[in-house]
Sequence to fold (49 residues):
Amino acid sequence: MSSPNANQVSLKNISLHLSRKFRCEVSTDAAVFTTNCCENELAVLGKLN
Fold:
């Protein structure tokens, strides 16, 4: 598993029953606050050993 970065996040200790549509909202911090939202399906397929 790769580390989180500007394009991805890592989820740990999540239930296999969490597969569904999620919404992510990201905001910048500075004098100008910009917000971006995205919705997508998350499929939890199994655990890494």
